[in-house]
TrEMBL record:
Residues 136-257 form the GFO/IDH/MocA-like oxidoreductase domain. Residues 7-127 form the Gfo/Idh/MocA-like oxidoreductase N-terminal domain. It comes from Mycobacterium dioxanotrophicus. This is Oxidoreductase. Gene3D superfamilies: Dihydrodipicolinate Reductase, domain 2 (3.30.360.10), NAD(P)-binding Rossmann-like Domain (3.40.50.720). SUPFAM superfamilies: Glyceraldehyde-3-phosphate dehydrogenase-like, C-terminal domain (SSF55347), NAD(P)-binding Rossmann-fold domains (SSF51735). GO terms for molecular function: nucleotide binding. InterPro entries: Gfo/Idh/MocA-like_OxRdtase_N, Gfo/Idh/MocA_Oxidoreductases, GFO_IDH_MocA-like_dom, NAD(P)-bd_dom_sf.
Length: 354
């Protein structure tokens, strides 16, 4: 089946829309037709720079959603607006790709899933890392028993936050800070990898640099226990130039070390160590993570497969991030609280040529 070419309406004139998603949409043959944003002047400049035919301020959401040519919306506005905007889009019959975190609380996350399901539209959440060819190979190795029973996972998700992004991420509003920005990404990787849910979280968070408009944490280190006794360590930071990113998976029959894989770029190497020694594992799919995300989203809108990360997957990732925040702020180990809505399963099997 040919993957449909989606005509998009953008809700939010964000940096990620401009630097990541619009280029990805055009690489995969999609069309960006409309923009709705909160500031008319900013919307006009953004639309002009990115050659979007229609850009309106004060969100102009009704006008965008009334356009019969719009197939789907990409929401990258502030997190607090996600639920209302996704609900309006679903009611208008538009499929929804929402930026992460999907919401600021689990109730809102699950309401978004329910609303989209009720209106028969696809909800995808832009956790791009599980889409990567490297991550797919790691999941396949684990699923095939290459390292035996998984015992531990370590994630190092560290970099220096670019100057242009040192705004709301470092402020005091809900959704700011490294945990909601990066830790939820980590969880979107770990959850389908271990195919289990987190039980408890213990975390510390700090402000290492005097930058930005507020006091949100810019580094966090977390320890989590998952079902089956799997232990997970996450190190997330905006503060570390020249730091590599890494995913390590340790089992009772071997280990996988994936260097440079916690980024959107199709980079990174995988090394498998077991009783036969150490060897690099080939990764054949080197497409950009956002391109793969869009491919699966578009296929889902045509009734083929599912998004790489759907609303329930994203809610489970959010649950981990919220527990990490709670632990860091309360200085105690806390349970990871999930909704009673059952998970649908997060593992994505992607054909080599998809």
């Amino acid at each position: 089946m040919t993957t449909p070419r989606i005509t998009w309406g953008l809700i939010g004139a964000s940096d990620i829309a401009e630097t990541r998603m619009i280029p990805a949409m055009r690489r995969v043959g999609h069309r960006v037709a409309r923009l709705a944003s909160g500031d008319a002047a900013h919307a006009a400049r953004f639309a002009g720079r990115n050659e979007i035919p229609y850009g309106t301020g004060e969100f102009g959401l009704d006008e965008l959603l009334d356009d019969p040519n719009i197939d789907a919306v990409y929401i990258s506005s502030t997190n607090a607006r996600h639920l209302a905007q996704a609900s309006a889009a679903a009611a208008a019959g538009k499929h929804v790709l929402c930026e992460k975190p999907v919401a600021l609380d689990l109730q809102s996350a699950h309401r978004m899933t329910a609303v989209c399901a009720a209106h028969g539209v696809v909800l995808g959440v832009n956790h791009h890392l599980p889409a990567a060819g490297t991550h797919r190979v790691v999941r396949e190795l684990v699923r095939d028993g290459a390292i035996g029973r998984v015992l531990a996972v370590n994630v190092q998700h560290t970099s220096l936050l670019p100057e242009r992004l040192r705004g709301w991420r470092l402020g005091d509003a809900a959704g700011s800070g490294v945990v909601m920005d990066l830790t939820c990404h980590d969880a979107s990787v770990v959850n389908p990898l271990v195919e289990a849910r987190a039980l408890h979280a213990s975390a510390i968070a700090a402000r290492q640099h005097d930058w930005g408009p507020g006091h949100a944490e810019d580094v966090a280190v977390s320890a989590l226990e998952y079902e089956g006794g799997v232990v997970v360590r996450l190190h997330d930071a905006f503060t570390t130039p020249y730091a590599p990113t890494r995913l390590e998976v340790y089992g009772d029959g071997g280990s996988i070390v994936a260097d440079g894989v916690m980024t959107p770029e199709p980079d990174g190497t995988l090394v498998l160590r077991d009783a036969r020694g150490e060897r690099e594992v080939e990764v054949s799919d080197r497409r950009h993570t956002y391109d793969i995300t869009l491919h699966h989203f578009a296929s889902a809108t045509a009734g083929e497969g599912r998004p790489v990360v759907d609303g329930r997957d994203a809610a489970d990732a959010l649950a981990v991030a919220l527990a990490v925040l709670d632990s860091a702020r309360s200085e105690r180990t806390v349970p990871v609280e999930f909704s009673t809505i059952p998970a649908t399963g997060s593992t994505i099997t992607q054909p080599e040529n998809s």
